[in-house]
Task: structure prediction
Amino acid sequence: MGDEPTIFGRILDGDIPCHRVYEDQDVLAFLDVGPLSLGHVLVIPKERVAFLHELSDEAAAALGRVLPRIARAVMEVTGCADYNVLQNNGADAHQAVFHVHFHIIPKHADGSGLGLVWPAGELVQGETLAAALAEAI
Result:
């Protein structure tokens, strides 16, 4: 990331207010100001990195511990039974704020929530190529 703080960094610094739903020493969760549905929450690490692969193991573990808790709270409060967890990395992957963040987006009966088109392809042609890809990863 550059020297300028992101909007999430400014929230962490207290320069921009937010509607906090959870906070501990490693993680902050707050309501999205442009929600896709009622209860849309952003969950961010306090570690300031742009991309998931840059997170320390400790920050990643803290997010992993908190995400299910926040999802359960969103479900209980909003009454939704379904939700999406979304995390984007890079401009071409639709990341708009370059500070790692997860969206918890309730899907409600009125259709609000994340709309998604999933143009599924096929696994790399041939078992040998698929096995080589899996081994390389």
The chain has three helices and five strands. The longest strand covers residues 102-107. Residues 57-78 form the longest helix (22 residues). The helical segments are 7-12, 57-78, 127-136.
